[in-house]
Amino acid sequence: MKENRCAACGLIKLNRELMKFVSLPTGEFALDFKQTMPLKGVYVCAEKKCIKEAADKRLFNKAFGFDVDTGASDAVLKHVEDVYERYVYSLLRNGRGGGKVVSSAMLKDVNVISRAKYSLISGDVGDDNKSKILHLCGKYNIEYCFFKTKNDYYKNVEGKYRAAYFVLENSLAGKIKNTVDTLRQINNGSA
Ligand SMILES: [Zn+2]
């Protein structure tokens, strides 16, 4: 398995524990989320501390060996967050199309909900819906997280306001959970 050194803290880690940043041919600085772009990458821990340090101290440029306009560290963090969120939404959309993700509209269908492996509950869900959803999660042993708002789901997953999504398939649930967890880890890291 491939390893690289974090440009900020200097620790060597597996690539999957690091984020790879590239300078696109257009000159734009971007996260190579899947680490598949055939471009020289600069690796940084998936932590706010290392991302901020790399941007603030111009360590990205040093590691690239050429000058790249990375923007302020807050902009880099925002970009990373956007990329991770877009990935979660794309997994939810594709899962919905493939029948592996259902929305809270299916709450009453026990045959469906009892198969759920993971739930994303919108952060602004009303108290009534929230207690219903949390009750089901407890009853069927469904792991859950609070992720974004009903309006975010409306805009990015489907054109209806939804309180929550339930992921029915194990591998998809694992992918979504990992992505959300990494996003949390990046955001919670000390500034
Ligand atoms: Zn680091």
From TrEMBL:
The lineage of its organism: Bacteria, Pseudomonadati, Deferribacterota, Deferribacteres, Deferribacterales. InterPro entries: Ribosomal_eL30-like_sf, YlxR, YlxR-like_sf, YlxR_dom. Pfam families: YlxR. SUPFAM superfamilies: L30e-like (SSF55315), YlxR-like (SSF64376). This is YlxR domain-containing protein. Transmembrane segments: none annotated. It comes from the Bacteria. PANTHER family: BLL0784 PROTEIN, YLXR DOMAIN-CONTAINING PROTEIN. Gene3D superfamilies: 3.30.1330.30, YlxR-like. Residues 5-72 form the YlxR domain. It comes from Flexistipes sinusarabici (strain ATCC 49648 / DSM 4947 / MAS 10).
